[in-house]
Design a protein that fits this description.
single chain, Immunoglobulin-like, Rhopdopsin 7-helix transmembrane proteins, Alpha-Beta Plaits, eight-stranded mixed β-sheet, 52% helix
C-alpha cells in the first residue's frame, strides 16, 4: 500500500511540473503557487493560471486573515478573468521566485481600467515590507507608473522569494487580468495596443466632420441625431472601454462611473430616435413607432437618472434595457427593409453590428463571457463599422429623396401642360356653345315670355361654368406668370401664335459666377444645385424689386433685361442698381455658404432687341439681337467682381450720375470727380479705355464702381 502511494505521489508531481511548464512551478510548501522568473524568459507571465482566489463576502477581512484562510478556502481560477458584477472584495495571492544570480525587476500589471480600489501587499520571509495602492481612486498623476492600468514595479534580489497578495473591489465589472511583464516588453505592447483605439477616434472625427457639414447645409433632424449619437458613443468608449478618461481628466471616481453609465444608456436612446427619424416610422410603421418612442424616452430618463440614483441600480436596469431596445430597433430596421425601403439595407446592417456589440457588452458585464473575449478593440471596431454603415444609409436616403423630388417635379410639369391644353380646348368649346345659344335666343325672341324659366335655368348653368372657368384661368395665369411676362401671357391668351417684338431701347445684363466650375468639380451635385438655387432665388427677388425681367439661367450664368415693360422708362438706371446689389448679395451669400472664393462678373449693354416666344412645347420667352451679343461680350471681357458696361450704358447713366476718370488699377486713389446729381443717388464709374471685343472690334468701355448717396 505504501509503495502504491509513493508511485502515485511521484506521478502527480511529474504531471504537475509538465502541466505548469518551465516558468510556472507548483510548490505546496509556499502559501500559493510559485512563478519562477530569470533573465532568459518570463517576458510575459499570465498570473491568473496560478493565483489563488478568495472572495470576502463580508468586505471586512484583513490581509493577515486572508493569508490564514487562503490555504484552506482559496481556489485556483485556472485563467478566469471576468467574474461579472460582484459587490464583494476579491483577494488574489501568488509567489514570485527569482531563479537567477542577479537582481531582476518586473512590472506587475492589473489590466483593467475600472477596478475601483486595489491594494497590493508584498511579503518577504513572511513579513510585510510594502503596501502599494492602485485603481481608479488613485489619480493618474500620483500613480507609481503613469499608465491607464494599475502598474507596480517589483524588484527581486538574487534567488529571492516574494509573496504577493492583491485586494480588489469595484462597483462595475469584476475583470481582474493579472500579468507579470518585462518593462520594455510591456511598454512596446502597450504602445501597439493604443494604435487601434486612436484609429477609431480618427474615423469617428472624420465621420462627425463630414456629417456636420451636411447638417449645416440641409439642417436635417436625422443628421442632428446622428451627430449627437457619434459624440455620445465615442465619449462612452473613451471612458468606458479605453480608460482614457482617468488619464486625461481629473474627475472623481463617482463622477466618472456615473458619466460612463449616462453615456452608454444615452447612446442607445439617441440611436433609437435616429431609427425613428430615418425610417419615418410614424407613417410607415405607426404601431412600432409608438413602442420604440416610449422605450427610447424611458431609456433617456434612465440615462439622466444615472447622475443621482445608485450606480448598481442604474447598471442592473440599464444593461437589459439597452439590450432589449437594441433588439427592437434592429427588428424595426429589418421590417422596413422587408417593406422595400432601399436605404434601410445599410441601416439594418449597421443595427446588426450595433446589436452584436451591445449584446457583447451586456454579456461581459454579467460575466457570461471572458474579459479577453471582447478584448480592448472589439467595441471600437464594431462601433466604427456601425457608424460608417449609418452614414452610408443617410447618404442613400438623400439620393432616394432627391430622385423622388425630381420625378414629382417632372410629373407636375407634365400635368400642368396637359391641364393648360385641356383648358384651352374647353374654353373654345364653351365659347362655341355660348355663341350658338345666343343665336338661338335671338331667333326665339318672340317666344321669350313662354320660355323665360328655361332661359333662367340655362343662365344659372352658364354662370356656374363661368365661375369654374375663372378659377381655371386664375390657376393658369399663376403658372404662366412664373414663366412669361404678364403682357406676353395676355397676348398668348388673346390667341397670338407667334410673338416677336422689336424694342427700340432695352438694357441687357449678363452675370457669370467666377470659379464656380472649379468648385463644381469637387462638390457633390446635390450641393451644387442647392448653392445655385440659393443664389438665383436671391437674384430673382432683386429683379422683382427693380421691376426688370429675368430671362433665363444657363448653368451658373444669369440673364436679366430692363425696358420691356412700358412703365419702366429708366431701365438703364434700374439695371445698374440691380448689378450693384447683385455683387453685394453674392459676396454675403458666398460667405454664408462657405465658398468665399467665388465672385460675380457682370456685363451690361443698352440697345435695340427683339423679344418673343419660341417653341410650342416647353416654350420660353427670349431675346435676340446685337445688343444681347454685346452684353454677353461685356460679361466675358470683364473682370471678376466688377461690372463692365458699354459706352451706351455709360451715356444713359452719365446723364443722371457721377463718373471718375482714373487708372484701371483699383489700388490707385480715385481722382478727378465730375458730379451730376439725380434725385438722391449718383453713380461712380472708372474708365477702362478701348477694349478689343470679339466680333465687335475696339470698344470704349467702363467699370461701374457703385452708387454714392447724395446728402
Amino acid at each position: 500500500m505504501k509503495r502504491v502511494l509513493t508511485i502515485y505521489l511521484i506521478c502527480f508531481v511529474l504531471f504537475s511540473t509538465l502541466l505548469v511548464g518551465e516558468e510556472l512551478v507548483a510548490d505546496k510548501t509556499e502559501l500559493v503557487h510559485k512563478v519562477t522568473i530569470d533573465r532568459q524568459n518570463s517576458k510575459e507571465v499570465e498570473l491568473n493560471r496560478v493565483a489563488l482566489l478568495l472572495i470576502d463576502s463580508t468586505n471586512t477581512a484583513q490581509m493577515h486573515d486572508v493569508r490564514r484562510l487562503l490555504p484552506i478556502r482559496g481556489k485556483q481560477v485556472n485563467g478566469q478573468v471576468n467574474f461579472g458584477i460582484s459587490p464583494y472584495t476579491f483577494w488574489y495571492a501568488f509567489t514570485i521566485y527569482n531563479n537567477d544570480s542577479v537582481a531582476l525587476s518586473r512590472l506587475f500589471v492589473i489590466g483593467d481600467y475600472f477596478l475601483e480600489e486595489i491594494e497590493t501587499y508584498l511579503l518577504s520571509n513572511d513579513s510585510l515590507y510594502s503596501n502599494l495602492k492602485g485603481g481608479c481612486v488613485v489619480p493618474f498623476s500620483q500613480r507609481e507608473i503613469l499608465n491607464r492600468y494599475t502598474v507596480h514595479r517589483i524588484n527581486l534580489q538574487p534567488h529571492e522569494t516574494l509573496q504577493v497578495m492583491v485586494k480588489v473591489k469595484t462597483r462595475l465589472t469584476m475583470s481582474v487580468p493579472l500579468k507579470l511583464w518585462q518593462e520594455d516588453t510591456f511598454r512596446y505592447s502597450d504602445s501597439l495596443s493604443q494604435i487601434p483605439m486612436w484609429l477609431y477616434y480618427g474615423i469617428a472625427l472624420g465621420l462627425f466632420a463630414y456629417n456636420l457639414f451636411i447638417w449645416l447645409t440641409l439642417r436635417s433632424k436625422t443628421y442632428f441625431l446622428y451627430l449627437l449619437y457619434i459624440l455620445h458613443i465615442s465619449a462612452f468608449l473613451f471612458w468606458g472601454s479605453n480608460g482614457l478618461g482617468f488619464q486625461f481628466f481629473s474627475l472623481s471616481v463617482e463622477f466618472s462611473f456615473r458619466l460612463i453609465m449616462y453615456l452608454g444608456i444615452m447612446s442607445m436612446a439617441l440611436v433609437s430616435f435616429l431609427t425613428i427619424a430615418f425610417l419615418d416610422l410614424p407613417s410607415v410603421l405607426p404601431r412600432w413607432n409608438t413602442v420604440v418612442t416610449i422605450c427610447a424616452w424611458l431609456l433617456m430618463v434612465l440615462a439622466l437618472s444615472a447622475w443621482f440614483l445608485p450606480i448598481p441600480l442604474v447598471r442592473d436596469v440599464g444593461n437589459p434595457a439597452t439590450g432589449l431596445l437594441a433588439i427592437l430597433c434592429g427588428a424595426v430596421a429589418v421590417r422596413s427593409l422587408w417593406l422595400g425601403y432601399t436605404p434601410a439595407k445599410y441601416f439594418a446592417a449597421g443595427w446588426v453590428v450595433f446589436l452584436f456589440v451591445t449584446v457583447l457588452f451586456v454579456m461581459q458585464d454579467e460575466g457570461i463571457i471572458e474579459w479577453y473575449f471582447i478584448g480592448q478593440y472589439g467595441a471600437q471596431f464594431g462601433s466604427a463599422f456601425e457608424m460608417i454603415l449609418f452614414s452610408i444609409a443617410l447618404a442613400s436616403r438623400i439620393r432616394v429623396l432627391e430622385k423622388e423630388r425630381v420625378e414629382a417635379r417632372e410629373e407636375l410639369l407634365y400635368t400642368s401642360q396637359a391641364l393648360i391644353l385641356s383648358l384651352q380646348e374647353s374654353e373654345k368649346t364653351l365659347e362655341l356653345k355660348v355663341a350658338e345659344r345666343t343665336k338661338n335666343l335671338q331667333e326665339a325672341n318672340e317666344r321669350l315670355n313662354v320660355q323665360s324659366q328655361q332661359i333662367q335655368l340655362v343662365n344659372s348653368i352658364l354662370q356656374e361654368q363661368n365661375l369654374a372657368l375663372d378659377d381655371s384661368r386664375s390657376q393658369i395665369e399663376r403658372l404662366m406668370l412664373n414663366i412669361l411676362p404678364k403682357a406676353i401671357f395676355v397676348r398668348l391668351q388673346a390667341g397670338e401664335k407667334r410673338i416677336a417684338d422689336k424694342i427700340e431701347s432695352a438694357t441687357v445684363l449678363f452675370a457669370d459666377i467666377v470659379n464656380f466650375t472649379e468648385i463644381s468639380s469637387k462638390t457633390p451635385p446635390v450641393e451644387i444645385v442647392a448653392i445655385l438655387d440659393t443664389l438665383f432665388s436671391k437674384f430673382d427677388e432683386l429683379a422683382e424689386k427693380y421691376n426688370v425681367e429675368k430671362i433665363k439661367t444657363i448653368g451658373d450664368a444669369y440673364m436679366v433685361v430692363g425696358g420691356l415693360a412700358d412703365s419702366e422708362k429708366s431701365h438703364s438706371h434700374a439695371i445698374a442698381l440691380l448689378a450693384i446689389e447683385m455683387q453685394q448679395c453674392l459676396a454675403e451669400t458666398a460667405l454664408s455658404l462657405g465658398i468665399p472664393e467665388v465672385s460675380l462678373r457682370i456685363g451690361i449693354h443698352t440697345g435695340e432687341v427683339v423679344a418673343g416666344v419660341i417653341g410650342t412645347k416647353k416654350f420660353a420667352y427670349d431675346l435676340w439681337g446685337d445688343t444681347v451679343n454685346t452684353a454677353s461680350r461685356m460679361e466675358s471681357h470683364g473682370e471678376p467682381g466688377k461690372i463692365h458696361i458699354s459706352e451706351s450704358v455709360f451715356q444713359a447713366l452719365h446723364r443722371t450720375s457721377n463718373f471718375v476718370d482714373s487708372d484701371i488699377n483699383l489700388n490707385v486713389q480715385l481722382a478727378q470727380e465730375k458730379k451730376m446729381r439725380s434725385g438722391d443717388q449718383s453713380f461712380v464709374f472708372q474708365e477702362r479705355g478701348l477694349v478689343d471685343v470679339k466680333g465687335k472690334g475696339a470698344m470704349k468701355t467702363w467699370f461701374l464702381l457703385g452708387v454714392k448717396e447724395n446728402s
